[in-house]
Specification:
It is built from 11 helices and 44 strands. With 708 residues, it is of the alpha+beta class. β6 and β7 form a beta hairpin. It is globular, with a radius of gyration of 25 Å.
Amino acid sequence: MAEDSFPRQKARTRGFTLGAPRSFRVAEDGSRVSFIRSTSGDNPQGCLWVFDVETREERLIFDPSAADGGQELTQDERDRRERMREQMTGVTTYDADDGLTSAVFVLGGRVHVADLVAGGAHPLEHAAEGAFDVRPDPTGRRVAYVVDGALHVQDLPARGGHAGSSRVLAHDNDPDVHWGIAEFAASEELERHRGFWWSPDGERIAVARVDERPVRVWHIASPVDPDAPPRAVRYPQAGTDNADVSLSVLGLDGSRVDVDWDRDALPYLVEVTWNDRCPLTLLVLSRDQKRWLVLEADPDSGKTQALVEHTAEHWQTIVTGVPDRLSDGRLVFVEEREDTRRITLDGAPVTPAGLQVASVLDVGGDVLFAGQDDPTEMHVWRITGDGGGSPERLTTEPGVHTAARAGDLMVIVSDLADRRMRRALVLRAGAELAEIRSHVETPVIDAHPTFGVVGDREIRVAVFTPGGAEPSTPLPVILDPYGGPHFAKVLNAYRATLEPQWLADQGFAVLVADGRGTPGRGIQWEHAVYRDFAGPVLDDQVDALHAASERFGFLDLDRVGIRGWSFGGYLAAMAVLRRPDVFHAAVAGAPVTDQTLYDTAYTERYLGLPQDEEDVYRRNSLIEDAPNLTRPLLLIHGLADDNVFVANTLRMSRALTEAGRPHSFVALSGITHMTTEESVAENLLLLQVRFLREALGLVDELDAVRPA
């Protein structure tokens, strides 16, 4: 068989994510580790596995390819996967009891129960069809799950016994009122993907009630199938009403206690924590995201008391894993001080200025967290429960690391700077016991990035050349940014360098730059885009290009292209519209061209309410720039995108046409904000390269990048 091209391999492996072990859970007694992994680097079906610590053996618990029945997804499950950017099928998420003796997951809308000790899994008897987000209580006696907006509870069978019948614990007779789910704003923008939380004793559940009736109805049509009716979705457009979210504590005996807080002033429910260390605790946030409260709730009365209150000048940034409590009862939170997100214990900071806390991974007698003292890497750290001394860094190799643990057993998962890409090590008390196998395919290309720091603002960049060699003649330049909040592209992790390297191999010098607004550089750096997505973001790409050209003399500044997706697509389109003196061609994928067409929680965080900030929205949108287009521009958008609606690109294209400005537009039928369909993903890369080569004058050897 002929060797794959890189575009084909990348599409077939879903960006080299298939076959990677992930979603680790560690048994509280340290006896086993559970995880999800597909059987090969191009098999998209996730399987459930267990690693036995005593025998050092991996055991396949459940392979969905051998399951009876289909795997047709419910709409709730499709929405969950889209919000989480899930690229796998089969078992993609699961939950388990603390002892890791059994696990539960949903496949094809049916609840399944897996025996993590003996192996095997089977559908749960008497469970309702169309289930979504199944979770066991901490004691492992019963499960709860959502079906059509109703919360169901069901007793699990004792070993060798039969399951109890499913019963509805909460339901409203309205299709737009849901119990136990995360609404769009929470799951897409607030890092919360669940809607109910068991009490530690398994006798009560804290449940979010989501009333979507105030939210506007938008429609997604399928133009290739005019007989199909458009799909109606509730989309919280910037400046319009959000879902009304409340929280209730439901007893299995039928009792209900509504949790009381000022939901008018603090409408966003960001996080709920309830475990044997931490009483029922909420993090709630104001609509403008400048003020939040940590509240402790009494599950018997619903009354709350404030534990922490903070107000920010610009916005509060959510860090997952908090609030929580140490074993001794002290509150673990993350606060912004000295230009740094720092872990606090009962309000006292215990991590130093300059170490940016990205997520809290585990809390017990101490705190395990992921953090950055270098924006190009992510490491795992530990801070002792007494808060004394400096945090201990547990990972040393360059890369992006995270971890899961229970007791003294830990799994450290690393995306490394070398060609292994994904490694999962099992350690006990810091000593390596084993490595969980990875089936990620080895790329057909070698990446040779040159990392650097350029310009007065010390912008982090990565530069790629064909084959990694020093060019003997000037090369046309492609900028390949994301450029916006919450996502950095200049990472010392091999998988992140592959696509820019392939792009360079097509005859370009590729520059990736993380300017102001991107994470890992401090709060002021991120907040530089407050009320202004356009100025600092675009200026930093220009400055990075010019500063890099002083260091890398082979960058041909007379032939500069730019491409990007989502925020990167917005940035690419803006570049040729507002700085045609610098940028000579652009590929803009799924861009937000009109900021009033994006969602509340994201857009209002940075730009405010459109009815209060009309000029801010006008300056940060691109429609009025259409008459300025003088450079080649390729617009790409999925017609089924329910995150950045295709209306953004259609309005841009119409404005360009009305202004008499030629441009290209590729509409992807049936494609959402993710491009997981193999043939589409492959050919999108090839189409972009062909467009950029033609636009920048590389007309020779076009057949080498002709779409398949």
